[in-house]
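Entry 0007
Protein: Luciferase-like domain-containing protein
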Amino acid sequence: MPPQITCPAAVSQINDVRVAAGRAGRTAPRFGLNGFLIARDTEAEARHTLREIVVKADSDAPEGFGAALKQAGRSTADGKGMWQDSTFEDLVQYNDGFGTGLIGTPEQIA
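Output (structure tokens):
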């Protein structure tokens, strides 16, 4: 069984593609996700590592990338695109790499 996706932007986009495929009489494609994980012995350690990554990030890169994505999203059918709600923390790893929520102990992530 595939893992349960909980990232709201990803879930919304996957659902939109499935609906569009169904309307066109097609089978929905498979999906891939750009997810980065942080696994540590405890969830607190993993969250601490994420905070360190965010604090040490070159803020210009994620902020510039986020602004470009949000501008591009305005041309989509819904007027926002899939990254409109992305935070700085999400964009430290491009394409919402940490937005997938794969942060915690190996057991939690699995």
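Curator remark: The helical segments are 8-23, 43-56, 60-73, 88-91, 106-109. The two ends are 12 Å apart (CA to CA).
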